[in-house]
Amino acid sequence: MTLPSTPKIVFLDRETLAPAIRLRPPAFPHRWEEHQRTAPEQVPERLDGASVAVINKVPLREPVLERLPDLRLIAVAATGTDCVDTAWCDRHGVAVCNIRGYAVHTVPEHVFTLILALRRSLLPYRRSVEAGRWQEARQFCFFDHPVLDLHGARLGLIGGGSLGSAVATIGRAFGMDVVFAGRKGDTAPADGRLAFDEVIATSDVISLHCPLRPETRGLIGAAEFARMKPEALLINTARGGLVDEAALTEALRAGRIGGAGFDVAMPEPPPADAPLMKLLDLPNFILTPHVAWAARGAMQALADQLVDLIDAFEQGRPFNLVAGGPKG
């Protein structure tokens, strides 16, 4: 698994990394080309003759991939690889590598930012103070919105891995009862996990940390919202497609759950008439623009690992392979 003597490396969507983030050059002779953004119809021309494609969210599917005979490596500048036709790459020996471990601190911190803001009604209280409610109060404080502690609350995690495990560690530090869910439909999960339905029904906070795959699309829908506690929070920093957004809208508008904090949507960016955009008037819903991963240190670690992937592949010792070679 080595590259031609002077391979062409093309980064199709450099704009997905902040301008302040430095991408060091690979440690071997190469031709580097980058584009701030790339429309789907521009992909074949820009990757013509390329040995390495660097992408974050630009889709690479079979109709495009079969037009790129020189392609040897797709380096995904993210953990999720749902934008790549990995099955095609497996069949044709094109390696696909992703980034791992870079967000193990920043994403869990964002998760708890959302949880704390919602459990303690920070946004409603801020709005009330801005509206002059405190000045009108007859006592030193007022109790217009609920304030709930994390200590003693159950945190249900759907998806483990490094991010789920890091969220669990923080949750335990707060004194939360942390449980992991088994696969949906598995009534007797192993490894100390609880049945998916039990986690849905008994958790005060549910946080998603699983990849988007055909079997996880719409993982949380109307049936799950109906089983949740009335004060339960749903936190999603994973992928927008994991949640039926129409069902979430109905659950929040009807007061079936306590609130939701999302850092992802489907699609991204969401159009103005998307379900999540119509929830922004609610005091118990927070939407951030897919920035849980984007702390400066984490983003630089991602950029460094991205170049490490390319260097390692050129040296014949690829790592973080998800297609085109041994997985791991």
From TrEMBL:
InterPro entries reported in the protein's UniProt record: D-iso_2-hydroxyacid_DH_PdxB, D-isomer_2_OHA_DH_cat_dom, D-isomer_DH_CS, D-isomer_DH_NAD-bd, NAD(P)-bd_dom_sf
Residue span, D-isomer specific 2-hydroxyacid dehydrogenase catalytic domain: 38-318
Keywords for the protein's UniProt record, in alphabetical order: NAD, Oxidoreductase
A GO molecular function held by the record: NAD binding
Location of the D-isomer specific 2-hydroxyacid dehydrogenase NAD-binding domain: 112-292
Keyword NAD included in the entry's annotation: yes
CDD domains: 2-Hacid_dh_4 (cd12162)
Recorded family membership: Belongs to the D-isomer specific 2-hydroxyacid dehydrogenase family.
Identification of the protein by name: Glycerate dehydrogenase
